[in-house]
Design goal:
Layout (H helix, E strand, L loop, with lengths): L5 H10 L9 H4 L16 E8 L7 E10 L7 E6 L9 H7 L3 E3 L5 E3 H20 L6 E7 L1 H17 L2 E7 L7 H11 L4 E6 L22 E3 L13 H8 L18 H9 L9 H22 L13 H13 L3 H17 L13 H27 L1
Parallel strand pairs: 3-6, 6-7, 7-8, 8-9
Antiparallel strand pairs: 1-2, 2-3, 4-5
C-alpha cells in the first residue's frame, strides 16, 4: 500500500497553515500530491471547518483542514490534512489545547477533551465527503502538526475503525491524545507500522499532556530526531524545523530512539534515587518524570487493587485522581510509600520547591498542589513553544 515520504508529509503539514478561507484551498491543492493531468474532472475535496475553544467561552468556527482525493500519483487515495495551533482566532486554539479533561470518543475510549471536541465538530463533514466517493478508496493519509497532529490521530482511528480503509498517520510535534486504552486500541486499528510520529528531542509540545495521556503507537518510540539545543525549545516545535529535519530522508533513516532506557523499571528506580539535580527546562527530566509517574502510580494501583487506567475515569480532575492515589500509596507498605516519596521529592526539586521534611508531611493536599504545578509548568512550556512557532 502507498506511503507518503517524510518530505511530502512535512510539506502538507506546512502548507495547510496557509488555508484559512475557501479562496485559499486551490493554493493548497496545487501541491504535486493532488496534481492531475490524465483527467479533466475536478478533484473531490472539502474545506473542513472546526469548532474551537470552549463550548461557551471563546467558541469559534474556523478553517482547520482539507479532505481531498489524491492526484495522478495517488489515485484511489484520500488525504486528511489538519493545521496546528494559530493565534488567528483570538486564542480559541489555545483554549482547545488547554481543555485537558478526559472524555470518551465515538468508540467509548478515553481521549483528550479539547482535541475530541475539535475533531467531532468536523465529523459530519467527513462522513459526507467519504459517502460522496462511493467507497473507491485504497488508502487514507492523515497528516498534521501540533494540534493538527492530535486531530489527525483521532481521524486515523475513526477511519480505520469505522470505514475500514487502510490508514496511514503522519504527525509532527504532536501532543498526547488519549490514555492507555485508546493508545492500545488505535495502534491495533491503524497498525503501528502505519503510524509515523515525528518529534524533536527538545520539542515540549510532544511531551504534553502528562500521564495518564500516552503516545501512539503503543510501546514504540516513533521517529525521534535529535535537537541541537540542550534545553526545551520553541524553535524545536516549528514546522519549518521539521521540514529541514526530514527533507530527502526515508522513514527508516529517522527511526531513532531516545537515549536513556526511560521505560526500564530498574533505570526509573535509579533515576528516582539519584542525587543528580534535575531541571524542569531539560527535556530529559520530562521524559523521566512521565515514566516515573506511570511506574509509581502503577505500584499504588496494584497495591490498592484499583484498575490502573480506570482510576482516571470520572468527574474529578487528573491531578485530583493522581493525588488521591499517591496519598494512599504514602500510607501503604514501605516498598510503595518509599517510591511515592522519591517521586514527589524529585518533582519538587525540579520545580524549585522545598523538599518535604518527612514522608508524613506529604499530604494529599500538598501532593495535589505539586502535581498541579508540574502540569502547569509543562503546559506553559508547550504554549510558549506554540506561540513562538506561530510567529
Amino acid at each position: 500500500m502507498s506511503k507518503l515520504s517524510p518530505t511530502v508529509a512535512a510539506e502538507l503539514a506546512t502548507d495547510i497553515y496557509r488555508v484559512q478561507t475557501d479562496n485559499q484551498v486551490p493554493i493548497f491543492l496545487s501541491h504535486p500530491a493532488f496534481s492531475r493531468t490524465t483527467s479533466k474532472s475536478p478533484t473531490a475535496f472539502r474545506h473542513l471547518k472546526a469548532e474551537l475553544g470552549g463550548r461557551l467561552v471563546l467558541n469559534r468556527k474556523d478553517g482547520f483542514g482539507i479532505c481531498s482525493m489524491g492526484g495522478d500519483h495517488h489515485q484511489g487515495e484520500a488525504f486528511l490534512v489538519f493545521r496546528g495551533t494559530t493565534s488567528a482566532n483570538d486564542g480559541a486554539d489555545f483554549l482547545t489545547d488547554a481543555r485537558i479533561g478526559i472524555t470518551n470518543n465515538q468508540s467509548g475510549l478515553p481521549v483528550h477533551c479539547g482535541f475530541h471536541h475539535c475533531f467531532a465538530s468536523m465529523l459530519p463533514a467527513l462522513k459526507t465527503f467519504f459517502a460522496s466517493l462511493g467507497g473507491n478508496i485504497k488508502v487514507v493519509h492523515c497528516v498534521g502538526h501540533s494540534l493538527g497532529g492530535a486531530v489527525a490521530s483521532l481521524a486515523a482511528d475513526w477511519v480505520a475503525r469505522n470505514l475500514k480503509y487502510a490508514t496511514r498517520l503522519y504527525t509532527f510535534g504532536a501532543p498526547r491524545v488519549g490514555t492507555d486504552w485508546f493508545v492500545k486500541s488505535t495502534t491495533s486499528a491503524v497498525q503501528g507500522v502505519n503510524m509515523h510520529r515525528i518529534y524533536h528531542k527538545t520539542d515540549p509540545v510532544a511531551m504534553v499532556p502528562l500521564y495518564p495521556f500516552m503516545h501512539a503507537p503503543y510501546n514504540l518510540p516513533g521517529h525521534y530526531i535529535h535537537s541541537h539545543e540542550p534545553l526545551l525549545s520553541g524553535d524545536a516545535h516549528r514546522m519549518d524545523r521539521y521540514v529541514t529535519s526530514v527533507k530527502g530522508k526515508s522513514w527508516d533513516s529517522i527511526k531513532g530512539n531516545p537515549e536513556p532506557p526511560y521505560t526500564l523499571e530498574s533505570a526509573i528506580e535509579s533515576w528516582l534515587e539519584s542525587k543528580t539535580p534535575v531541571n524542569s527546562s531539560s527535556p530529559t527530566f520530562w521524559r523521566w518524570v512521565d515514566s516515573a509517574l506511570i511506574y509509581v502510580i502503577k505500584k499504588v494501583a496494584m497495591a490498592t487493587l484499583v484498575t490502573f487506567q480506570g482510576a482516571f475515569v470520572g468527574v474529578f480532575t487528573v491531578a485530583d485522581k493522581m493525588a488521591y492515589l499517591l496519598a494512599k500509596g504514602i500510607k501503604m507498605a514501605e516498598h510503595v510509600g518509599y517510591w511515592v516519596e522519591r517521586l514527589m521529592r524529585k518533582i519538587m526539586q525540579a520545580l524549585g520547591m522545598r523538599a518535604p521534611q518527612s514522608r508524613e508531611s506529604l499530604t494529599e493536599g500538598l501532593i495535589r498542589h505539586v502535581l498541579r504545578r508540574l502540569m502547569a509548568q509543562s503546559n506553559k512550556d508547550a504554549r510558549n513553544a506554540i506561540q513562538k512557532s506561530d510567529g
